[in-house]
Design brief:
Length: 55
């Protein structure tokens, strides 16, 4: 589990860096609780610092 968590942390840092993050076709997905939490973490890390386009 620690290895998976390390990979998730690295990916989260990568998603926080770009000046613009485009998340496409979000409305077509049924999100599990885990994915919804990760999505909220990404958006909260980016809030007030960089832009997100959500389609």
């Amino acid at each position: 589990m620690a290895d998976a968590q390390g990979k998730l942390d690295k990916k989260m840092r990568g998603l926080a860096n770009p000046s613009l993050l485009i998340i496409n076709e979000m409305g077509y997905l049924n999100l599990s609780n885990t994915v919804a939490i990760i999505y909220l973490q990404v958006t909260s890390r980016r809030y007030e610092n960089s832009s997100i386009i959500l389609t």
